[in-house]
Fold this protein.
Amino acid sequence: MKRQGGDDVDTYRIEPHFVGIDDYTRLRFESGLFPFARAAADKGLKGTVFGVRVLHGEDVVGMGRIIGDGGCFFQVTDIAVEPAHQRKGLGKRIMTALVDYMKANLPETAYVSLIADVPANRLYEQFGFAETSPRSLGMAMRIYK
């Protein structure tokens, strides 16, 4: 199957294995996500409950993961695809793999959240995520020293 840009979608593989620190920091930077210090990222990756990587040939071109406490609270995070491979349905394939894992493995009372950049919120809505306002609002804080 061909998609925009002429790449064959079948040349991409989604694997249930999260990326290493080098690919993680590179993909966050290249896709425009906030870059973390390497030491912070290395420590943070240990909190991965489940993750996937997208391979194009042998190159890692995308990722996504679930973090959490293992029982009550989980968060979908680090959905990233290299710009040259975007708009080919890879974000949807990443989310499908993550949601399939959650449905098969998380407790039925698990609370799963995410912070969506606009317009990516439209992708997440396709998987059952909904805005929590007005009952609650997502909030964030960055620690700067």
Q: What stands out?
A: The chain has one domain: 9-125. The helical segments are 21-30, 38-44, 90-105, 121-125.
